[in-house]
Design goal:
single chain, eleven-stranded mixed sheet, 11 strands
Length: 456
């Protein structure tokens, strides 16, 4: 698929037009043999055409109305964000009777002001509460890999429709959220680049929360450069082309222990090959234990998990205050997880916040001297949808494994990037680069170099 830079070059040269792109992508989204009906909860067809026509005019007019940063680029919007005049349901039935949003969420307004063509609302895990991607209310978009075998495989969540919308070419990029990996997981499962920024850089107001402590907003796209362009707009920054970081000057930490354990053979093989490519370019990849990461997973194994109870409490409290139903109409698996916060005390929450604050400092120190930590994004390849629908125990076990390598990054409020590292036609596998808090631009520059090395 063409990148944002490729498309905008074609638009400027007159060899393609935003309106023509929109028509091609609407045709894909409406194709009854495709995934559009499961990917999009609504399509803004006329609004997309109107925005594309405006972009056409700006490209034709030259300097009198210069193209904006995302002029004519189609972007799908996860059904977590307010779009003026539309109902935000967060992939649920229980919010379907809400009034339409009075205004765009800030990130949606920034995309619109940057010239992006808002293409439609994408399906998601109900209330973003799973990394798998299954939605019993609106259907589950099928992964492109082995799509027609045994009912298809999961797309990854919670930004499930976002990932498939880009992977299937129904839009150029997607707006997602990442509370425990919900941008990076669907990126990895769909062969895309996905960027989780340091949370404070991008506003989360105007979005239904999962966790105010850990929610972040990021893009899914076909390249690191695309993610960097989108990230700049979402963060309210002026985009400046990144200079790729020379890999011979790079030091990466490959932590022994949990994050590289219990991998599917396809994941292990692809990531080992990727590490070999990076070393061949001169990058230093140091394998050693990381005490802070080991400490996190030890805390996670405790009962209750001290690092999580704060999030569980705030999730439960939001639903108690804003929905007011006792689980009626929820996905039972989502409601089960929300209910885990019912008995969390104020003292539990205070201890969790204190623990995390101190642990974040330890993680910051652990990254000293390294450009990034490198891990598989997800430990397994996309599981079959039907097997997880049929078996609660298998669903929760797979969900835990799928989230394992990503969720700790949100706890430390770092930044992270997932890049495809599998061979063409093979099971989709992502390689994750994790940077310290607020090192977003440096990580994206590194990601451009790693991306180029992986494509050789």
């Amino acid at each position: 698929m063409p990148t944002i830079a490729d498309l905008q070059q074609a638009f400027a040269a007159g060899t393609d037009q935003p309106s023509a792109l929109v028509e091609r992508q609407l045709e894909l989204a409406r194709d009854l043999q495709g995934e559009g009906a499961r990917v999009f909860l609504s399509l803004n067809e006329q609004l997309a055409r109107d925005a594309a026509a405006t972009a056409d005019q700006r490209y034709r007019s030259g300097s009198s109305a210069a193209p904006r940063p995302l002029e004519g680029i189609t972007v799908s919007i996860k059904d977590l964000f307010d779009v003026a005049g539309e109902v935000t349901t967060a992939g649920s039935r229980v919010l379907a009777s809400r009034a339409p949003a009075a205004a765009d969420a800030p990130v949606v307004a920034r995309l619109r002001a940057a010239g992006a063509v808002l293409f439609g609302r994408t399906n998601m895990v109900e209330f973003a509460f799973s990394g798998v991607g299954i939605n019993p209310h609106y259907g589950t978009p099928r992964n492109g890999w082995q799509r027609h075998q045994a009912g298809g495989r999961v797309p990854g969540g919670s930004s499930s429709g976002a990932g498939v919308s880009v992977a299937d070419g129904m839009c150029v990029a997607a707006l997602g959220t990442d509370t425990g990996g919900s941008v990076r997981i669907p990126a990895a499962f769909n062969g895309l680049a996905g960027f989780k920024p340091t949370a404070f850089r991008v506003p989360v107001n105007g979005a239904v929360p999962l966790s105010f402590l850990h929610d972040s907003v990021g893009p899914l796209a076909h390249s690191v450069d695309c993610c960097a362009r989108l990230d700049a707009v979402l963060a309210g920054e002026r985009y400046a082309p990144l200079a790729p970081k020379p890999l011979p000057s790079v030091r990466l930490l490959k932590p022994t222990g949990v994050l590289w354990s219990s991998l599917d053979s396809d994941v292990d093989a692809a990531c080992v090959e990727a590490i070999g490519k990076l070393r061949a370019t001169g990058a230093v990849v140091e394998e050693r234990s990381c005490e802070a990461i080991d400490e996190f997973f030890s805390a996670m194994a405790a009962v209750p998990a001290g690092s999580l109870v704060g999030r569980l409490a705030e999730t439960f409290d939001w639903h108690a205050a804003n929905v007011g139903v006792d689980g009626d109409g929820y996905d039972p698996r989502v409601w089960h997880r929300i209910q885990l916060g019912h008995d969390v005390t104020r003292a539990d929450t205070s201890r969790a916040i204190a623990w995390l604050r101190l642990w974040k400092h330890r993680m910051h120190d652990a990254l000293a001297g390294y450009d990034a930590i490198v891990t598989p994004t997800v430990a397994c390849v996309p599981p079959l949808i039907q097997a997880l629908v049929d078996d609660d125990a298998l669903f929760f076990a797979r969900n835990q494994l799928i989230l394992r390598n990503t969720m700790w990054v949100n706890m430390m409020d770092g930044c992270a990037l997932s890049l495809p590292c599998h061979r063409r036609g093979a099971a989709p596998v992502g390689l994750q680069l994790v940077g310290r808090h607020a090192a977003d631009h440096s990580l994206l520059a590194l990601g451009m170099s790693v991306e180029a090395a992986l494509q050789q």
